[in-house]
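testing teh design pipeline on a random one, pls ignore if ur not involved
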């Protein structure tokens, strides 16, 4: 690609090699600056990560390894994964960026996009002065998971994950609703309401924020996400989340693919080059194409 600033290094690089790579991609590394190193606790610790943490420490940065709660299930399991996968030996503390229940997030505006008005990210990631994503490229039946996916989905809070995977608003199965009104109590926006005719809960979309608190508190499972959304739309919303995050903080990106480490200041270019090199089908790269279209206006 024209003007492509893509750098590479071996996966077994030392701290000096890691520092040169981070300087090449322009990661801000002022003394005492806080760097959120985004990783995936559910995957084995990348071989290059200890060298990256050493390099940041030598520059006087305060780095932490960050991931967010899974969309469903026990949020704290992510920290158990971190320990079992070797992140506790990487040289920086592990932080669950959206808290032990997946509810500690910050809402930031999403500008210059088509599908979102705002995005929900783990608060600790947004507390950082800069973001460094360290991603291992995977391609499977779920699609192409590179830098954009790791930023847009991996940094999203639990509510944000639900938002990008669904239509963004929950729905109520009236046959399971017992009229306990717990959902209306926990809803802070007036989105969950009781139907006066049936005494069953209902969701009023214009007021619903998509936080899914009503879904988590419902004792009978009557409230659930609306998954009636295409895969391309999911990829595009994840991509818009990634854009919102990169617009909010300085950032740089490292991706491991085909036995090498690649780094770039632009996640879209990095993903595009790797996808093209591997011959990934267009159906798997809708998020990349969506961001390229947004850039073209």
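output:
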């Amino acid at each position: 690609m024209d003007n492509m600033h893509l750098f590479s290094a071996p996966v077994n690089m030392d701290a000096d090699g890691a520092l040169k790579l981070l300087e090449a991609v322009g990661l801000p590394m002022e003394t005492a600056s806080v760097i959120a190193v985004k990783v995936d606790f559910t995957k084995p610790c990348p071989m290059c990560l200890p060298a990256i943490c050493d390099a940041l420490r030598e520059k006087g940065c305060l780095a932490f390894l960050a991931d967010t709660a899974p969309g469903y299930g026990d949020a704290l399991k992510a920290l158990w994964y971190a320990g079992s996968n070797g992140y506790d030996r990487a040289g920086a503390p592990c932080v669950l960026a959206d808290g032990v229940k997946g509810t500690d997030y910050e809402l930031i505006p999403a500008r210059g996009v088509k599908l979102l008005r705002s995005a929900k990210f783990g608060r600790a990631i947004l507390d950082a002065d800069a973001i460094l994503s360290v991603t291992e490229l995977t391609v499977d039946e779920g699609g192409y998971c590179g830098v954009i996916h790791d930023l847009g989905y991996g940094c999203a809070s639990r509510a944000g994950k639900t938002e990008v995977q669904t239509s963004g608003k929950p729905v109520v199965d009236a046959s399971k609703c017992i009229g306990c009104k717990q959902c209306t109590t926990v809803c802070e926006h007036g989105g969950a309401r009781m139907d006066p005719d049936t005494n069953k809960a209902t969701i009023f979309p214009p007021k619903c924020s998509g936080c899914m608190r009503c879904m988590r508190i419902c004792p009978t499972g009557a409230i659930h996400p609306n998954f009636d959304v295409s895969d391309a739309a999911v990829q595009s919303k994840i991509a818009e989340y990634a854009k919102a995050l990169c617009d909010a903080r300085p950032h740089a990106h490292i991706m491991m693919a085909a036995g090498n480490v690649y780094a770039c200041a632009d996640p879209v270019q990095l993903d595009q080059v790797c996808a093209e090199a591997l011959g990934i089908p267009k159906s798997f790269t809708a998020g990349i194409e969506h961001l390229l279209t947004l850039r073209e206006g």
